[in-house]
Design goal:
alpha/beta, single chain, 12 strands, 8-stranded parallel β-barrel
């Protein structure tokens, strides 16, 4: 059985790592290169960096940041934010990223997933989905969770797989930053798909992460606040997950 992965997520705005609740109320929490190096040294399996402002200037700045991250960090890292073309993806991969994640642009132009996968391979493409519950239905949101779409989580995930995505990163906006746990039933349903699922949104305790990796059948747990504020250090998290019988790299 493949080891479950622990993935700190670093949201980047204007060159700094930030964190909020339900996608709002952002506060600076540290330098992204230094934080990433710290997490790598502590045993993180991968990192995800998301440029959450992604203006034109931000994308150029972000590319420089990716190069600095690649020079310091020896574990795989995924980058996203503002990727709307194969060229955008290529620029970030050339700068040293191991994978790219595409969200809003894929909803607007689903062929983008096909195109990036065709050029670079599915293993380089992480399809990110932000969604919230609206009238008992997971509605896919775009533009940093600000715009509802006519797409539904599970059918959209199936389409992304068919188009060549190598992984799906699903963030529950209702749970993001709340530290109240992940929606495990929804992750278990996504786990029926033939590609790895990264769970995001709701980590507050070791048990929350254990639940989404077992009951939710996720392949990886992504979290931010608990790591940024040193509430659950990665070494402790992995030891406690291992003690619960969950296969993690120690």
């Amino acid at each position: 059985m493949l080891a479950k992965r622990i993935i700190p997520c670093l949201d980047i705005r204007e060159g700094q790592t930030v964190k909020g609740i339900n996608f709002v109320g952002l506060k600076q929490v540290g330098d992204p290169v230094e934080l990433g190096a710290k997490y790598a040294a502590e045993g993180a399996d991968e990192l995800v960096y998301l440029d959450i402002s992604a203006s034109e200037e931000g994308r150029r700045t972000f590319t420089d940041l990716v190069s600095r991250i690649a020079a310091r960090i020896d574990i795989p890292f995924t980058v996203g934010g503002g990727i709307s073309s194969v060229e955008d993806a290529g620029r970030l991969l050339d700068a040293g990223a191991d994978k790219v994640t595409v969200n809003s642009a894929a909803v607007r132009n689903p062929d983008l997933i096909d195109a990036i996968a065709a050029k670079y391979g599915s293993q380089f493409v992480v399809a990110a989905i932000d969604a919230r519950m609206i009238e008992d239905r997971w509605v896919v949101m775009t533009h940093g969770g600000k715009r509802p779409t006519d797409r539904e989580l599970f059918s959209w995930a199936e389409e992304l797989v068919a188009r060549g995505a190598g992984e799906i990163l699903f963030t529950s906006m209702d749970h993001d930053g709340t530290k109240n746990g992940y929606p495990c039933d929804s992750f278990a349903r996504l786990a029926e798909l033939p590609i790895p699922i990264i769970a995001s949104g709701g980590a507050g305790t070791v048990d929350h992460i254990a639940d989404v990796l077992t009951l939710g059948r996720a392949d990886a747990a992504l979290a931010a606040s608990i790591f940024h504020y040193n509430e659950i250090p990665i070494p402790r998290l992995k030891r406690e997950l291992n003690a619960k019988g969950i296969n993690v790299r120690l």
